[in-house]
């Protein structure tokens, strides 16, 4: 059967041509490329807020989510002239890459036209890509860790953030875990942000030692524990953004939450089919994320305390 003809969509001031709009990306659900474009348009304000001004790696699925995944850093030749990019340097290979830098919804629609399903932004912005403005707390459950345990640990995370005077913004991961984002002053390097994140993870582990591990090597972790993955704050480490669809058969979405929803949410219910209506009804729970900026001074004091006490760094960010 021949592919359906391309369609043109007006997105703000720009026209995005969507080729093969009927190509099925999620066979279990019958979700097509055009359906995926329509999803991102429906949560446009939220996805642009999550990606705005950030270098963004694209997880592309040219043959749908049952095919191979392509991790794409460089924007290909032939991109429209209105698409914005940011140049990054990768010291290990002494190479540069011009990555997508979303500033408007048309940029997102173009990326989906290029078979992007997942958006993985950096936690820094193009004004200074070496100074993160976002601290990411990744609650990553091991295979035998149930979501009730994730909920309990999220409560501890919220408690510690409140004591620090930091505002956390939770979301489902699109998998079995949760992410919490904190806006920070862009004054520290990736190394220091990671040190602060590790100090925070250790404090959560102290308060919930049965539930939490900070052991870096998987073989050293209790399979029923929850790993607080501080290394997601290392340079060039990315996780799926708020409102990103995940490349899994169920088309789950990394969905922003209010804190009081964590005790009742089932992440499996947050999908491409349900999130648009939720967004239309509730708006974006992360709408105020840029309004509260936290300084890392206290966490870096905790890090120095732990280091002076002889606590080893359990993981190499590279």
Structure, described:
It is a single chain. The protein has 318 residues and is α+β, with helices and mostly antiparallel strands. The protein contains seven helices and 14 strands. Helix 1 (33-42) packs antiparallel against helix 3 (105-113). The chain starts with 6 loop residues before the first strand and ends in a 10-residue tail after the last helix.
Give a brief description:
The chain is of the alpha+beta class and 318 residues long.
Query: From the helix content, strand content and strand pairing, which structural class follows?
Result: alpha+beta
Q: Note the main sheet.
A: 5 strands, antiparallel
What is the count of β-strands?
Answer: 14
Helix content: 25-40%
Categorize the overall geometry. globular
What is the N-to-C succession of helices and strands? Answer: EEEEHHEEEEHEEHEEHEEHH
pLDDT averaged residue by residue: 96
Percentage of residues in strands: 15-25%
Euclidean distance between termini CA atoms: 46 Å
Radius of gyration: 20 Å
Number of helices: 7
Low-confidence stretches: none
């Amino acid at each position: 059967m021949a592919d359906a003809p391309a369609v043109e969509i007006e997105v703000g001031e720009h026209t995005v041509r969507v080729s093969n709009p009927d190509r099925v990306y999620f066979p279990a659900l019958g979700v097509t490329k055009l359906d995926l474009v329509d999803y991102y348009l429906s949560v446009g304000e939220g996805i642009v807020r999550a990606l705005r001004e950030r270098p963004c790696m694209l997880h592309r699925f040219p043959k749908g989510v049952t095919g191979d995944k392509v991790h794409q850093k460089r924007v290909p030749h032939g991109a429209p002239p209105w698409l914005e990019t940011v140049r990054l340097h990768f010291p290990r290979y002494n190479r540069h890459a011009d990555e997508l830098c979303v500033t408007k919804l048309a940029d997102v629609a173009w990326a989906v036209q290029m078979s992007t399903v997942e958006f993985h932004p950096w936690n820094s912005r193009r004004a200074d890509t070496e100074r993160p403005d976002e601290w990411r707390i990744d609650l990553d459950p091991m295979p035998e860790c149930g979501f009730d345990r994730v909920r309990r640990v999220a409560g501890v995370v919220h408690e510690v953030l409140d004591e620090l005077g930091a505002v956390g913004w939770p979301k489902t991961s699109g998998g079995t875990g949760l992410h919490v984002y904190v806006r920070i002053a862009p004054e520290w390097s990736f190394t220091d942000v990671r040190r602060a994140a590790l100090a925070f993870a250790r404090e959560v582990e102290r308060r919930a030692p049965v539930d939490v591990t900070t052991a870096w090597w998987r073989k050293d972790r209790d399979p029923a524990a929850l790993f607080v993955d501080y290394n997601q704050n290392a340079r060039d480490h990315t996780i799926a953004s708020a409102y990103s669809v995940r490349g899994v058969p169920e088309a789950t979405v990394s969905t922003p939450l209010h804190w009081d929803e964590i005790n009742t949410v089932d992440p499996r219910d947050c999908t491409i089919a349900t999130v648009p209506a939720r967004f239309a009804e509730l708006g974006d729970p992360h709408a105020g994320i840029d309004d509260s900026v936290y300084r890392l001074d206290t966490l870096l004091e905790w890090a120095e305390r732990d280091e002076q006490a002889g606590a080893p760094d359990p993981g190499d960010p590279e």
